[in-house]
Amino acid sequence: MLCKKLLRIWPQVQTVSAEQDVYLDSVALNLHSFYSGLERLFVLIARHVDQNLPDSETWHRDLLHQMSRELIGIRPGVIGAENAVNLDGFRQARHLVRNVYTINLAAERVVGLMLALPGLWNKVQVELLAFADFLEELAKA
């Protein structure tokens, strides 16, 4: 739903207008929400399936990498390594929005994330659904 919203407003952001900065801020905040939602899911998996939530200073990055690894005897990788690398750009942008505000988020970076979003979301969604199937099979066992 959030991805559809972002893709719907993206053409307006690309048009040069006096309100372009407002649209960019909106897109940046929605990208923040996109990654935050994924991270909340990853936290739940780390706590309840892995029983190991990273707690270092770099726990956000560590969590993303943890989700890309298979934990032998526990679970397959939740997302692929390539998608983890691509999602890391969203994690970094989320950090900027959350801690430094959108004024410091370059328009070029937002453009790059928006260009990557449709394909990345399709791949991640497939992986998350496959992981949900794994959890269902685990529950049956």
Structure description:
- The chain contains five helices and no strands.
- Helix 2 crosses helix 4 and helix 3 packs antiparallel against helix 4.
- Helix content is 75%, strand content 0%.
- The chain starts with a helix and ends with a helix.
- The protein has one domain.
- With 141 residues, the chain is mainly α.
Secondary structure topology:
Layout: H1 2-14, H2 20-50, H3 59-67, H4 81-99, H5 107-140
Helix pairs in contact: 1-2, 1-5, 2-3, 2-4, 2-5, 3-4, 4-5
**Total number of distinct structural domains:** 1
Low-confidence spans:
none
N-to-C CA distance? 33 Å
Characterize the main sheet: none
Tell me the fraction of residues in β-strands, as a range. Answer: under 5%
Radius of gyration, whole Å:
16 Å
Order of helices and strands: HHHHH
Question: Any idea what the shape is?
Answer: elongated
Number of strands: 0
Question: What are its keywords?
Answer:
141 residues; mainly alpha; 0% strand
Summarize the structure.
The protein has 141 residues and is mostly helical.
